[in-house]
Design brief:
It is a single chain. This protein has about 45 residues and is mainly α. Helices cover about 85% and strands about 0% of the residues. It starts with a helix and ends with a helix.
C-alpha cells in the first residue's frame, strides 16, 4: 500500500468519524459505499 493511499484512507476515516454524528443513516451508507469504492481503487492500482 502506498503512502498516498494510507494518508487518503486516514483522512477518510477522520471525515467519516466527523460526519457520522449528524448525517442521516441512508446518507452515511452512501458515503461508506463511496469510501469503499475509492479504497478498492487505491488497493487495485497501488
Amino acid at each position: 500500500m502506498s503512502t498516498t493511499g494510507y494518508a487518503y484512507a486516514n483522512t477518510l476515516s477522520i471525515y467519516l468519524a466527523m460526519t457520522s454524528t449528524y448525517e442521516p443513516f441512508h446518507k452515511r451508507i452512501r458515503i461508506y459505499f463511496n469510501v469503499i469504492t475509492q479504497l478498492v481503487k487505491i488497493f487495485w492500482v497501488g
